[in-house]
Amino acid sequence: MANKVFKNLDEQINILRDKGLIINDEDYAKEILLRENYFFIMGYRHLFVKHDTTRKFKDGSTFEELYSLFVFDRMFRNIIFKNILIVENNYKSIFSHVLSKDYGYKEKDYLNSKNFDTSKEKSRQINDLVRKIKRQLRINGKNHGATSHYMDNYGYIPLWIGIKVISFGIMSEMFSVLKYHNKEEIADIYHITPEEMEVFLPILANYRNLCAHEDIVFDHFTQRVIPDNKYHNLLNIDKTNDEYVYGKNDIFALIIILKFLLTQTDFKMMMNEINYEFDRLSGKLHTISIDDVLDKMGFPPNYKDIMYMEG
Questions:
Q1: Residue 221 in contact with residue 250, Cβ under 8 Å?
Q2: Which residues pair with 49 in a beta bridge?
Q3: How many CA atoms lie within 13 A of 6 on its CB side?
Q4: C-alpha separations of 47 from 81, 114, 169, 277 in Å
Q5: Could you write out the DSSP letters of every residue in the chain?
Q6: Left, alpha or beta for 298 (phi > 0: left; psi -120 to 50: alpha)?
Q7: Which residues are CB-contacts of 278 (< 8 A; sequence separation ≥ 6)?
Q8: Rounded Cα gap, residues 2 and 203, in angstroms
Q9: Per-residue pLDDT reduced to its tens digit, 172-193
Q10: CB 48 within 8 A of CB 66
Q11: Looking at residues 217-227, what average pLDDT do you find?
């Protein structure tokens, strides 16, 4: 395999033109390529590429059109990230309330391995998670005002304070090792089952990391598949081989998760922002349509109906 060698901006422009992309303003394209990175912008090419052996851009595709999808994903990602952080904060607050109420407010109490699933197959995972939490409390806690205040003045960090410095990934995994009645108490607040919550949390943690690192989000598919639920049914989503074609492990599955976990007000605000970005992108597309983008994201044609469905 040939080495990938450095290409200057003029060479990058020539490569794009050789691939059939129309560049109307070369100086503008060079500035974007310098600021945003050729490799990352080309990550959005797939909807614009011919499905033949040439793999060139569809006739009429422009650099501005390709970049508009890049910008859309950035704006969409920011909306999703903001709302995942709302869910993260809510979940951590509820989690800390339940564990503190049942097991105490000092680390030695709420991190006691006896408070969690006592099955043998979970013991190693629990011990590993407890070690990670203690480490994050010890190291990250020094850099946060509230946690350092409790460490210096009281000698311990209550869980409702400690959650500020414990990662969402660890907090989501912690749910899987709780005693079942604690899982139920947390899940009941969201009107879902513990089994659904256990699937939703790692998917949210995955998207949170994608958003935080500015990875491509709009066409991301997760390895985990969410369970069939009422929103699949209420939206009359089509099935193939008895499997829903939308909303299982695509971006719309994430929208369904957020429908369950956000308040109705927060969810409507999020969807209004997303719809605005869809409208903006639609006005900039001509080689492909906004419907192509929606389909790639797993949004059914009647996706807006979910805004008005009861939680």
A1: yes
A2: 57
A3: 1
A4: 24, 52, 32, 18
A5: --------HHHHHHHHHHTT-B-S-HHHHHHHHHHH-HHHHHTT-GGGB-SSTT-PBPTT-BHHHHHHHHHHHHHHHHHHHHHHHHHHHHHHHHHHHHHHHHH-SSHHHHT-GGGB---HHHHHHHHHHHHHHHHHHHHGGGGSHHHHHHHHHTSS--HHHHGGGS-HHHHHHHHTTB-HHHHHHHHHHTTS-HHHHHHHHHHHHHHHHHHHTT---TT---SS-PPP-HHHHHTT--EETTEESSSSSSHHHHHHHHHHHS-HHHHHHHHHHHHHHHHHHHTT-SSS-HHHHHHHHT--TTGGGGGGS--
A6: left
A7: 290, 293, 294
A8: 36
A9: 999 999 999 999 999 999 999 9
A10: yes
A11: 96
Alpha carbon 137 to chain centroid distance?
25
Angle of CA points 147, 201, 138, to nearest 5°: 20
Could you give the CA distance from residue 97 to residue 186 in angstroms, rounded to a whole number?
Answer: 9
Radius of gyration of the chain (CA): 23
pTM above 0.85, yes or no: yes
Nearest to 249 by CA among 297, 181, 305: 297
Per-residue pLDDT reduced to its tens digit, 248-281? 999 999 999 999 999 999 999 999 999 999 999 9
User: CA–CA separation, 94 vs 223, rounded Å?
Assistant: 27
Give the phi and the psi of residue 22 in degrees, each rounded to 5.
Answer: -80, 130
Stated length of the chain: 311
221 vs 109, 130, 180, 206, 262, CA distance in Å?
A: 39, 30, 29, 10, 21
| Count of CA atoms in the C-beta half-sphere (13 A) of 110 | 24
What CA–CA distance (Å, rounded) separates 233 from 120? 38
Q: Which residue has the tokens 């974007």?
A: 32
**CA–CA separation, 136 vs 92, rounded Å?**
15
Cβ–Cβ under 8 Å, residues 15 and 57: no
Selection from 61, 118, 9 nearest residue 287 by Cα: 61
